[in-house]
Amino acid sequence: MMPLPAPRKAAALCALLWLTGAASAGSLRVQVLDSAGKPLEGAVVSLVSDAARRAVRPLPEQEISQENKQFVPAVRVVTVGTLVRFPNRDSVRHHVYSFSPTKKFEIKLYAGTPAAPVLFDQPGVAVLGCNIHDQMVGWVVVLDTPYFAQTDAQGQALLEGMPAGAHQLRAWHARLPVDVTPPQQAIALTEGYSTATVRLGGLQP
Prior knowledge:
The protein is mainly beta. It has one helix at 50-55; strands at residues 15-21, 27-34, 44-48, 62-63, 65-67, 70-72, 75-79, 82-85, 94-100, 103-110, 118-120, 124-130, 137-143, 148-150, 156-160, 165-172, 184-189, 194-200.
C-alpha cells in the first residue's frame, strides 16, 4: 500500500493471509479480521505492483471536514497527487496539522474553508491532529495504486478491475500502531475469482 516508518515493535504485529481459489484480474474479495477473528470495519486494503503504480492518477479534490470537534471522515483514502480541503464546519476555530513524514503541514487557527487545499504527493499515512482539541485525530492514507477499498461492517472489501500479474496485497487499519509496518502478501492475479483473508494482530484499543 505505501512505505511507512520501519517497525520498532515488529513482534507486536501478527498477520496471517490466506488466499483461496484462482485469483482474478477482475475481482478479489478480501476479509479482514482482528487477532480474535472478529471482522474489522474500515480497514484499507490495496493491491500494489509496478503496473498499478503506472496506472495511478490523482482523485478529484477530496474533503476532510471538522464537525462536532471531529475529523469527518476519520479516515480518508486518496491516491498520490490528490488535493484535500479541510473545511471547518464547527462554531469554534481549529488548527489542523500533521507531523507525519508522508505529509507535514499546518493550517493555523481558522474558521470556514482555507483558500488552498493540501497536496498529498507521496504514499504513506498522514496522522492529523488539532492543536486546540487534543481528542481530534484523523488519518489520510495516500496510495500509489488505483486498486483499493475499505472494509464494511462485516470486514469485507471488494477489489475490481486489476490487471493480471504479480501484486502485493496490503492491509492497514487506524488501530495499528504508527511504528508497525502493515502486513503484505504476494499474489499472482490470473483469470477467475479469488478471496483472501487478512488477520491483523497488535491492534490498539
